[in-house]
Design brief:
This protein is α/β, with parallel strands linked by helices. It has four domains: 14-114; 132-213, no CATH class; 228-286; 290-460, Double Stranded RNA Binding Domain (2-Layer Sandwich), CATH 3.30.160. It is 57% helix and 18% strand. The protein has helices at residues 2-32, 36-50, 56-74, 81-98, 108-113, 116-133, 139-153, 161-189, 193-207, 216-244, 249-266, 275-285, 311-322, 433-459; strands spanning 288-298, 328-330, 338-349, 354-363, 369-393, 397-416, 425-428. The longest helix is centred in the N-terminal third of the chain and has 31 residues, at 2-32.
Length: 462
């Protein structure tokens, strides 16, 4: 027990050492790739997890890596306004990582050099300056100006930054709404009512935070309903034209789809004429009625202990699963489009016991003769299932499936003066009818499914 505890302690120590070395390796890679914040975070995350430093050598390497990354961040260029913002934001990120925790004292000089309140205020000032510099020329420039002030507010409230952020957010929304509104008016002139409705809707969304924008909502409804009515009328016209020449069930399914498109496109404003009833009528005409008959000519229907495992139930389920969805419907009436017949029969032969006796005589290396009796008992059980699947009426197809299985049991017994090494033995295992059926039924069902798929595919052409 003591050795086991020692082994566990050693394993844990080794794991910690490996993990610490991996942390340094990852931090070093981040540093070499110029991702100094990631380098710092790799180490501080591990320190926060451990709540302690690693062994002395690694501790120095970890802290040195963080100091090097901090130095690189502080040395970032700060000539342009964007460079100044990037530099101070990275310093802020580093400050958040090393400013707290048991290891904060190791970076005291850096933390004191950048007091958090002042650091955030300096960043806010830079964003204030960035916002002031944005020239208001395009709608997009209003967004850039508002975002600059808004981002600055995330660090500190400086001067009238809040008022400016509010002012230019609204100005941007107003300009954006106006842009969409004008685009919509041009679409109306060009009689592109769908795009017009979409642009009126965008105008509504752009100004939503401040209330209604002109009559954009009313115009959206007007032109949205108009283009939808036009589209529905086109679908109705296509459906009516197709219906005149429809002969096959597939043609009627196409007709039903077109009427349904008319229903769907106009749905926000209610029913469109009699499109729904016409779609239902065409859908019914496109329905493929499948009837089926199962017949067992001979043999045992059972294939497992449960009722649903019976062969008749298995085949019935396969048919129902395959033809349960539109455009198929199962029918028990004689007026079906396709009639599927599954005739099956099973054969089971329980093998008779075959016995064989013989006298063996063996002389070993020492010249001793052994005379003994060897008796063999052999039995072979055989099972076969034969299926014929035939479809009639709209689809003409016939397939045969045949699978067999067998199980044998061979026992050997020795008696008399039996030499060493000769022992009674049994080879194989005897299975009865139901077990043999279960051994092949999965393959049988897969082949049945394949045939039913073929019937279904051909049925779509009628």
């Amino acid at each position: 027990m003591l050795n086991l505890r020692i082994l566990r302690v050693v394993s844990i120590v080794c794991f910690v050492v490996i993990l610490s070395a991996c942390t340094l390796k990852k931090a070093t890679q981040n540093y070499q790739q110029g991702d100094y914040i990631a380098s710092i975070k790799t180490i501080t995350d591990r320190l926060n997890q451990k709540q302690d430093y690693p062994r002395s050598a690694l501790k120095k390497s970890w802290l040195d890596t963080v100091h090097l990354s901090i130095h690189k961040i502080e040395s970032l260029p700060a000539m342009s306004l964007e460079q100044k913002i990037e530099r101070l934001e990275k310093i802020h990120q580093a400050r958040l990582l090393v400013g707290s925790g048991f290891y904060a004292n190791a970076f005291e000089t850096f933390n004191q050099r950048y007091p958090m309140v002042q650091l955030k205020l300096d960043i806010a000032k830079l964003y204030y300056e960035k916002g002031n510099r944005v020239q208001l020329i395009t709608t997009e420039s209003y967004r850039e100006k508002a975002e600059a002030y808004q981002t600055g507010l995330e660090f500190a409230q400086y001067a009238d930054m809040l008022d400016l952020a509010i002012k230019y957010r609204k100005a941007y929304s107003t300009r954006l709404a106006e842009d969409f509104y004008r685009e919509a008016q041009l679409d109306v002139k060009n009689k592109d009512y769908k795009n017009a409705s979409q642009n009126f809707s965008k105008a509504v969304d752009a100004y939503r935070a401040y209330g209604k924008y002109k009559d954009a909502q009313a115009l959206f409804v007007k032109y949205d309903q108009l283009w939808r009515a036009d589209a529905a009328a086109q679908f109705m016209s296509q459906a009516a034209s197709k219906e005149k020449s429809a002969k096959l069930k597939g043609d009627f399914r196409t007709v039903a789809k077109l009427y349904s498109e008319a229903v769907a496109v106009y749905q926000p404003y209610g029913a469109y004429k009699n499109a729904a009833s016409l779609a239902a009528t065409a859908k019914n005409k496109g329905m493929i009625h499948i009837a089926y008959t199962l017949d067992q000519e001979r043999g045992e229907d059972q294939c497992g202990s449960a009722y649903h495992q019976r062969l008749s139930e298995r085949f019935k389920t396969k048919i129902q699963d395959r033809f349960k969805s539109y455009p198929f419907t199962l029918s028990t009436s004689g007026a079906s489009d396709v009639h599927i017949y599954i005739d099956y029969q099973t054969y089971y032969k329980a093998g008779k016991l075959e016995e064989r006796n013989q006298v063996q005589s063996i002389v070993d290396q020492q010249g001793k003769e052994f005379k003994f009796n060897q008796r063999n008992e052999y039995r072979l059980n055989q099972y076969e299932i034969q299926i014929e699947i035939e479809s009639k009426d709209g689809v003409r197809l016939r397939k045969r499936i045949s699978k067999d299985a067998q199980a044998e049991l061979d026992k050997t017994f020795y008696s008399g003066l039996v030499p060493e090494g000769y022992k009674n033995k049994t080879i194989g295992a005897l299975k009865e009818q139901q077990e043999l059926c279960l051994g092949v039924i999965s393959e049988v069902e897969r082949e049945v499914e394949t045939v039913l798929d073929q019937i279904a595919q051909q049925s779509l052409k009628i």
